[in-house]
């Protein structure tokens, strides 16, 4: 820019003289120099613009996130199944111990809090691995609502039942023989007569439907999905046990009933804890879907 101003000043100085005193060759030289300087300025501006555009392109390229690595077979199949096995094992283990070693003065409050808090913790820990089902009705409901592939349903159910047996076995190893036998190994022994079956089945259907709806709405449904789902499920379990514990024992989970029944060989009215929860889970899936 300084050169351009210099050339303009020179031209103005020349025009102050008589036209006859100015050499034509001088005019041509001055205009040529001015033209070259203007071209030089245009080229410099173009170079600066190109450099700016190149820099912006490079910054945009660097800001792009790398493509996510596809999950391998272990991460897609074996890892989720292992999470279901371990999660169900520890949930049943903690739940059984709370029943076997229950302090009589605490009543239903102790097992209610233990089961609810245990499921909340396990759901929060393993939700990103397997979805934290730990319960056959949850798995069936999630599958029917499009949250699980069909080829994973049977492996999930098998791992949950095996986990239930392992959890009940750990509870048997931990507790005293006297308390274990008295509590039938934490198997569901609330039902003692045929007159109780109707209310127990209905209670299991209704309460399992409620907790399964909480799972589906809080974790699967895109419109109502919430990060508070572990807390919500845990609170629902606590509420159900406090409300229906004296009616059916509030199983809500066939894996929770199956493990203790295997370890203690207590099968009285065991079918109630399959029919009720499975039916409740299917009803919840239909309502949410």
Task: Give a written overview of the molecule.
- This is Aquaporin 8a, tandem duplicate 2.
- InterPro entries: Aquaporin-like (IPR023271), Aquaporin_8 (IPR023277), Aquaporin_transptr (IPR034294), MIP (IPR000425).
- It holds the Pfam family MIP.
- With 289 residues, the protein is an all-alpha fold.
- The chain has one domain (84-288): Up-down Bundle (Glycerol uptake facilitator protein).
- It contains eleven helices and no strands.
- The chain has helices spanning 2-15, 24-63, 73-100, 109-130, 136-144, 153-174, 177-182, 197-220, 229-244, 254-264, 272-288.
- Helix 4 runs antiparallel to helix 9 and helix 8 packs antiparallel against helix 9.
- It is globular, with a radius of gyration of 38 Å.
- The two termini are 72 Å apart.
- The mean pLDDT is 84.
């Amino acid at each position: 820019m300084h050169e351009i101003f210099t050339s303009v000043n020179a031209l103005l100085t020349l025009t102050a003289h008589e036209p006859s005193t100015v050499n034509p060759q001088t005019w041509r030289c001055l205009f040529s120099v001015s033209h070259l300087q203007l071209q030089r300025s245009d080229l410099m501006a173009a170079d600066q613009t190109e450099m700016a555009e190149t820099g912006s392109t490079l910054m945009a390229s660097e800001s792009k996130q790398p493509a996510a690595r596809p999950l391998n077979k272990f991460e897609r199949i074996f890892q989720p199944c292992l999470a279901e096995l371990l999660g169900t094992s520890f949930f049943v283990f903690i739940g059984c111990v709370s029943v076997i070693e229950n302090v009589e003065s605490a009543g239903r409050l102790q097992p209610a809090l233990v089961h609810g808090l245990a499921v909340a913790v396990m759901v929060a820990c393993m939700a990103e691995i397997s979805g934290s089902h730990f319960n056959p009705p949850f798995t069936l409901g999630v599958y029917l609502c499009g949250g699980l592939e069909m080829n994973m349903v049977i492996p999930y159910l098998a791992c949950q039942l095996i986990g239930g047996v392992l959890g009940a076995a750990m509870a048997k190893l931990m507790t005293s023989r006297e308390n274990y036998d008295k509590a039938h190994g934490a198997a569901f022994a609330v039902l003692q007569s045929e007159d109780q079956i109707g209310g127990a089945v209905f209670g299991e259907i209704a309460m399992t439907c409620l907790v399964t709806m909480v799972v589906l709405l809080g974790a699967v449904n895109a419109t109502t999905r919430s990060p508070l789902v572990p807390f919500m499920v845990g609170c629902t379990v606590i509420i159900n046990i406090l409300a229906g514990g004296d009616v059916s024992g509030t199983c809500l989970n066939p894996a929770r009933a199956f493990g203790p029944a295997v370890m203690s060989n207590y099968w009285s009215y065991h079918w109630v804890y399959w029919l009720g929860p499975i039916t409740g889970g299917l009803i919840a899936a239909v309502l949410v879907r």
